[in-house]
């Protein structure tokens, strides 16, 4: 992938324009471009689904996409970059860092994607100043778009795969323990219910037997 295709991702943001990008920034863009994955879509294919997490950046290499916005359709053409600003998540995002609209391919399209995990993996190997600047710009643009509420800025830190798996394992164990507790409570309830039912049945049988005895006497 040619670096010029993703150049806008960094230098087009307000506050980051420069005629002579730093070597680290140029290297960062090169590393990003090497991780772009090509995907191919036919007319009518859904590329981005409403409600889906903003976990990828999309570059339209060729073809066309239509954004199904609430107030009408918006066309996106070759060379446009979508979802780049939303790779950086904030806790005060009004839509919980999810896409607000469907994006549908309206032609035979080639779209290169970059995952959020890969983005942060590359970013972590560079000067923290670069991350802070991109976070500042992402916050500024998302705020301008009305995607954030007025609460204090709070960044959702990205986790690597190993951390995600560990957290998932812990969550699974906790869920297993809770399910075990629920199951134990269920069996306790069932045993109590059976005892009550047995007592009720025995009481009913005793009453029937008592009535039969009384009838025999008369």
UniProtKB/TrEMBL annotation:
Q: Which SMART domains match?
A: cNMP
Q: Does the keyword Membrane apply?
A: yes
Spell out the GO cellular component terms annotated for this protein, sorted alphabetically and separated by semicolons. Answer: intracellular cyclic nucleotide activated cation channel complex; plasma membrane
Regarding the membrane, this protein is recorded as: Multi-pass membrane protein
Q: Which ranges carry the Cyclic nucleotide-binding domain? A: 25-140
Note whether Ion transport occurs among the keywords. Answer: yes
Molecular function (GO) terms for this protein are: cGMP binding; intracellularly cAMP-activated cation channel activity; intracellularly cGMP-activated cation channel activity; protein-containing complex binding
Pfam families from the UniProt entry:
cNMP_binding (PF00027)
Q: Where in the cell is it found?
A: Membrane
Its domain of life reads Eukaryota
Q: Which InterPro entries match?
A: CNG_cation_channel, cNMP-bd_CS, cNMP-bd_dom, cNMP-bd_dom_sf, RmlC-like_jellyroll
Provide the alphabetized UniProt keywords. Answer: Ion channel, Ion transport, Ligand-gated ion channel, Membrane, Transmembrane, Transmembrane helix, Transport
> What PANTHER family does the annotation carry?
CYCLIC NUCLEOTIDE-BINDING DOMAIN-CONTAINING PROTEIN, CYCLIC NUCLEOTIDE-GATED CATION CHANNEL SUBUNIT A
This one is known as Cyclic nucleotide-binding domain-containing protein
**Species of provenance:** Caenorhabditis nigoni
